[in-house]
Amino acid sequence: MPKGKSIYEPEYPDFLQLLVETRKAGGLTQVQLAAKSGLSQQYISAVERGGIRLDTLQLRRWLHACGSDLKVFSAELERRLAVREGKAEGAKSGRTKKG
């Protein structure tokens, strides 16, 4: 059972960093993303600062405007969180696990 809002979870900065990186990789400023996604620039700024959360449909719209999608974003987020948690193969030592 969740303890509280996800914005207070230690992993949330990883999510926000990936959002910003995805926007920048798409070659978009916040203003350009707002125009392409239909979300306001103020909303985008607040999300990127961690002040408010996106729902799944807003995230999808954000990602599509950046030339990405939920599948790609989720896979990268899972990879980063696994590294953070030390669960990725070789995440801490740089070596792969031996069977």
Automatic annotation (TrEMBL):
Residues 19-73 form the HTH cro/C1-type domain. Pfam families: HTH_3 (PF01381). PROSITE patterns: HTH_CROC1. One of its GO terms (molecular function) is DNA binding. SMART domains: HTH_XRE. CDD domains: HTH_XRE. This is Helix-turn-helix domain-containing protein. It comes from Dyella choica.
